[in-house]
Amino acid sequence: MASARVSALVLSAASAAAMLYVGLYQVRAVKTLICPLFGGCEAVADAPFARPFGVPDGFIALGLYAVIVALLLLPAPRPGWLTGLLLGLGLLAAAGNALGVWDMSRLGAFCLYCLLTTALAPFLLLAIWASR
After folding, report:
1. I want to staple 4 with a disulfide (CB 3.0 to 4.6 A). Which of 21, 69, 96, 131 is the partner?
2. Helices and strands, number each (H, E), in the chain
3. What pLDDT is stored for residue 1 in this prediction?
4. What's the Cα-to-Cα distance from 106 to each of 3, 35, 44, 111, 131, rounded to whole Å?
5. Distance of CA 120 to CAs 23, 70, 86, Å?
């Protein structure tokens, strides 16, 4: 249980860090988005779909993962509604990631950081579930 909680914390913190980096590029606080493996990170981060409601999606995802981290840091045992909220937020993150991958496939460019958070999402959900 404690190891699952630590795993969930590490996974959500890693996803938050990746999305912080993307978000900082999207507002040009970082001038170049280093993109090993795919080379399409900047194209994805600058695409119109990467700014829903005019807000950089990197910061939206960062906020979502930061809330997950904050809720995971609350003392155990957690009430059932809090576990449900954590699972709901994890599902929201997974759905957002899946939508992002679909958008990237239509664009024909891929972002390593976005794919990383997408790959981590199922493990994050499992860790949240196991930590209840």
Report:
1. 131
2. 5, 0
3. 65
4. 38, 19, 11, 13, 36
5. 18, 18, 15
Per the CATH hierarchy, to which homologous superfamily does domain 2-130 belong? VKOR domain (1.20.1440.130)
Spatial distance between the Cα atoms of 11 and 5, rounded to a whole number of angstroms: 10
Measure the CA–CA gap between 58 and 19, rounded to whole angstroms: 5
Q: What's the rounded Cα separation, in Å, for the pair 132 and 130?
A: 6
Extents of the domains making up the chain:
2-130
Single-letter amino acid, residue 132: R
